[in-house]
Amino acid sequence: MATEKVTRRTLLTSGAKLVVVGAGMGASGLGLLSGCTGQAAAPAASPTAAGRATQPQQAIPEWPWPYVSLDPQVVAQKGYESYYQAGCMYGAFNAIISALSEKVGYPYTVIPTMMVKYGEGGVVGWASLCGAINGASLAINLVTKDYAPIVNELVGWYTVTAFPSFKPSSPKVEIKATSVSGSPLCHVSVTEWCNAAGAKSESPERAERCGRLTGEVAARAVELLNKQTSGGFQPAFKLSASVGECGACHLKGGTIENARGKMDCIPCHEPHIKQ
Predict the structure, then answer these.
(1) What are the C-alpha distances in Å from 57 to residues 33, 51, 107, 109, 181?
(2) SS3 for 188-222, per residue?
(3) Is pLDDT above 70 for 12?
(4) Do 167 and 212 contact (CB within 8 A), yes or no?
(5) Residues 6+ apart with CB under 8 A from 184
(6) How far is the first Cα of the chain from the last one, in angstroms, to the nearest whole number?
(7) Segment 201-254, tens digit of pLDDT
(8) Average pLDDT over every residue of 57-67
(9) Which runs of consecutive H residues, i.e. helices, occur in the chain?
(10) Do 95 and 75 touch, CB atoms closer than 8 A?
(11) Distance CA 96, CA 87 (A)
(12) CB within 8 A of 245, min separation 6: which ones?
């Protein structure tokens, strides 16, 4: 019995060795066959590599990107709805870019518009430049080299306009009050409206006001772009008289020259020029 067990083990061990040797010879044979054909066996491509190989590569167009005239009312509604998704800067920027994505297609289809969410509340709540102006200006800058006069007109228009006048198709909150900010700053714009409406700055009413304002600013931006595209743009905004009066001393070339800017000086600084 012992001899039989040893013999069986020996046979099993020998058989395993033969299988291993046979497999090695088979692999060697395949290698030899590959060598005979002059072609080396290529490793299988990973799914990721294969996907990259078949993915079409599209060139990024040079700046400025193509622009076509857009419907301001469509853009206004988009701006209002986008505001409630990710705030004012995103709302204005996404309104214009999504409209261009629908009418032009690539490259607007690949812009991650959520990248401008930081501008909400005047840059992460710092209440500096209104996010709607910021987002609309970025979109303007993307589609025209002659962006400065349009952005200047947009900012100036914002400071003298009673917001909001746009009414969305399905408003989330009913509001009636309007106010003129006299400033492009979120802090001033929100405070002026809250005072006029008797509303809290963190209330649904104030949010609704900013949502409508966002749509309105985006719509105004495309109105200006449409005019520039057709050759009919003419700047209309005039700087406040205080800018010239105060600037005589405080702006470039003045006797003091310690300031820069275009905003109306009076809302923040008490006048000290004798009338």
Answers:
(1) 37, 12, 12, 14, 47
(2) HHHHHHHHHHCCCCCCHHHHHHHHHHHHHHHHHHH
(3) no
(4) yes
(5) 129, 130, 133, 155, 158, 159, 263
(6) 126
(7) 999 999 999 999 999 999 999 999 999 999 999 999 999 888 888 989 999 999
(8) 93
(9) 2-37, 47-54, 72-86, 88-103, 131-143, 148-160, 186-197, 204-230, 241-250
(10) yes
(11) 15
(12) 265, 271, 273
pLDDT of residue 11: 39
Contact between residue 146 and residue 228 where contact means Cβ atoms under 8 Å apart: yes
Distance CA 247, CA 261 (A): 9
Cβ atoms of 137 and 158 within 8 Å: the answer is no
Query: pLDDT digit string (tens) for 172-205?
Result: 999 999 999 999 999 999 999 999 999 999 999 9
Residue 66 tokens read as 């193509």
Query: What proportion of the chain, given as a percentage, has pLDDT over 90?
Result: 71
Instruction: Give the single-character DSSP code of 170.
Output: S
pLDDT for the residue numbered 273: 63
Name the one residue in this structure whose structure tokens are 């004012």: 88
| Domain segments of the chain as ranges | 72-230, 246-275
**For residue 182, which phi and psi values (nearest 5 degrees)?**
70, 10
Residue type, 180: V
Phi, psi of 147 (to 5 degrees): -80, -30
**Model confidence band, residue 56 (pLDDT cutoffs 50, 70, 90):** low
Q: For residue 179, what are the β-bridge partners?
A: 163
User: Which pLDDT does position 54 carry in this prediction?
Assistant: 56
How many Å apart are CA 81 and CA 170, to the nearest integer? Answer: 10
Query: Token pair for residue 176?
Result: 């009636």
Distance between CA atoms of residues 218 and 92, nearest Å = 5
257: CB partners within 8 A, 6+ apart: 250, 251
